[in-house]
Amino acid sequence: MNCSQHQDEQMRLFCKECEDIICVQCLLENHPQHKVKGLSESHDIIRNKVNYWCSDNKSATKHDLAETKKQLEEANEKSVQDEAKVEEGIHTCEMQWKNKIEVEVKNLLETSKAVLEESRNQIQSLLDEVKFCENEMENPASEESLIRLYCSLKKCSINKEYDKVGPLLQLNAPSGDILLGCIGEDCVTRKTNDISTQTYNSHELVSDDNTTAEVDKKDLVTLIPLADLVVPVTKIIPVNTSDAWLISDRKLFRLDFSGIQMAAYSDEADDIAVLNNGDLLVLNRSTSFINQIDARGNVTPFTSTDPYMPLCMDYAKSDNSVFIWMSNKDSRQMTVFESNGIKKKSFTLANSKSESSFMSVHSSNNFSITYDVEQTTGIRNYVYSYSLEPKNSYSFSGKSGQSPYLQYVCKGLCYDNDGNILASDMQFNTIYQLDGKLQFRKILLDKNDGLISPAAIAYREGHLWIADSKSLRIYDYQALK
Question: Residue 228 in contact with residue 237, Cβ under 8 Å?
Answer without folding.
Answer: no
